[in-house]
Design a protein that fits this description.
By secondary structure, this protein is mainly α. The protein has 16 helices and no strands. This is DUF418 domain-containing protein.
Amino acid sequence: MGILAANIVAFGQPFQAYMYPDAFLTEHGPVSDWLLVAQFVIIDSKMRGLFTLLFGAGLYLFMERTWARGGTRWRQIWRLFILLLFGLIHYYLIWAGDILLYYAVIGFLIVPCLKWGAEAQLLTGLIGFVFGALLYSAMLTFPYLVAETSLGEQAQFSEVREGTLEAQASALADSNVETELIRSGDYAGVLSHRLSEHGADPIGNVLIFALETIPLMLLGVALYRLGFFGGGFPSRKMRLWGWTGLIIGALLNFGIGLFLMSTGFGYYAMLAAFVGWSSIPQLLMVLGLAALMVEYSDRWRGELAERVRAAGRAAFTNYLGTSILMLFVFQGWALGLFGELSRPELYLVTLLTCGLMLLWSKPWLERFRYGPLEWLWRCLTYGKVFPIRR
């Protein structure tokens, strides 16, 4: 549900609008500006970070069970290969914001590390993440300084500034082409454009996010093995670490958000903030959120809690199912709401869709052992048909 809150802008507006509010096809006034800051502080990168952390933990959990049955890491490799195929279908036929494909590819890199010691995994993850954060910040701060500050007005940077601004214009022009195809209802044209102009983007995503995703997956593996997710740490420490990480990270992100607002949410400032500057606050918040969710989840009871847990147990189906549903909401050949809804209205779509996840997941899992796609992935992983009905 948090992933949808992060992605909804890229579903309902041009993809560039995810980070650059000037790309909105509707007015992006003061209310939307503050909502953007709120999303930047609370949602962006944090939901993906939690997803990545848990994906790493899931890799080791799967291998624990496989090793107990006498299996090897090749079963995990095959399982990730199937996920890669799901990701290819998702990216090329449904939505260009797919995350499964590059999770599968990076998962291949994590599998050889699963037999490392937990401390080595933890240390490598932490050092790797900090190194990536510093590298991303260094790489992306320079384009911001050249394109959007007085530094670029100096003679020695004039050529670099021109090239940087041309790259921005080219990206926005490409986004306009895709917008027209979506609004016209030309689904075949959208797929053709994605294949011809963005066919190699999944490889680029792997390279861009590798120094975030590999460390976070390793951290997820290490924390799982150290008992973090199973109540193996003292409650007092979990609450202290959780609230400290969450509050400090949120305050740092809020400061970055205010700076972005003061700059008018410039294209390269937003890029640097999303990918580089917010990385360390992101890590603090992701680990803080994870600690607090572990600490407090057992105390959460009632109908809503059961429905949220059920939605999580059907996360694969809910993730891909949401993308398919958004096609029918926004594409020109369906409801045609692409580019028509403001940021607050897009958040309303998010709430309604999350409500739908909560509505179907619990009754389904009361009757069936797995979500539909969870069942299919399991069957393909083991090469046999498992009973699905309870």
